[in-house]
Amino acid sequence: MRIIVLKDSKHIEQVVVTAKSAVVGRRSDCDITIRDPTVSGHHAVILRSGDGYVIKVGTPLHA
Asked: Which InterPro entries does this UniProt record tie to the protein (predicted)?
């Protein structure tokens, strides 16, 4: 999976994730780090599901 990170509609970086899941958040131990105070430490997880992906955002991921 290829993820393109944008800020104010400008390309910031491109991340390639090959694992079945990827954690997104502000902390340095996340697979995809977003340095923004409005993003939780562990904000969301992206899960491979069949031919697509599911993004789960929620309280259990917040740190």
From this structure: FHA_dom (IPR000253), SMAD_FHA_dom_sf (IPR008984)
**Which residue's entry shows tokens 């899941």?**
21
Domains along the chain with CATH numbers: 19-63 (2.60.200.20)
DSSP 4: E
Beta bridge partners of 2: 16
CA distances from 54 to 11, 15, 25, 33, 36 (A): 23, 17, 16, 18, 22
For the cut 60, the answer to whether the pLDDT of residue 62 exceeds it is no
Entry pTM:
0.76
The pLDDT confidence band at residue 63, using thresholds 50, 70 and 90, is: very low
